[in-house]
Amino acid sequence: MLCRGFQPPNPLTKLGPCEATHRWPQVLPGGAAVLFTASPTATGHDNSNIEAISLKTGQVEIVQRGGY
């Protein structure tokens, strides 16, 4: 049951091909983008990427490959 006036959150990102999870979102200074970890597996993050999504355009860019 939802509380009166409560709106469920909308997902900020969509999983890409070969991605299992997006984790650890952090709003960047200025509030224009969110940094997060995109991982091909639900456990073990050695092959993950650090990515950023623009809150204005929704465009995603890889910031660092092989990191979390």
Explain what you see.
This protein is an all-beta fold and 68 residues long. It has a domain at 21-65. Helix content is 0%, strand content 38%. The chain is built from no helices and four strands. A four-stranded antiparallel sheet has the order 1-2-3-4, with no helix packed on it. The protein is globular and about 40 Å long. 13% of the residues are buried.
Q: Give the overall silhouette.
A: globular
User: What's the number of extended β-strand segments?
Assistant: 4
User: What would you call the structural class?
Assistant: mainly beta
Tell me about the biggest sheet?
4 strands, antiparallel
- Give the terminus-to-terminus CA distance: 36 Å
Give the amount of beta strand, in percent: 35-45%
Mean pLDDT: 91
Query: Poorly predicted ranges (pLDDT <50, ≥5 residues)?
Result: none
Report strand order across the widest sheet. 1-2-3-4
Task: Give the tags.
single chain; 68 residues; mainly beta; four-stranded antiparallel β-sheet
Furnish the topology, listing elements before pairings.
Elements: E1 21-27, E2 33-39, E3 49-54, E4 60-65
Brief write-up:
The chain is globular. The protein has 68 residues and is mainly beta. It has strands at residues 21-27, 33-39, 49-54, 60-65.
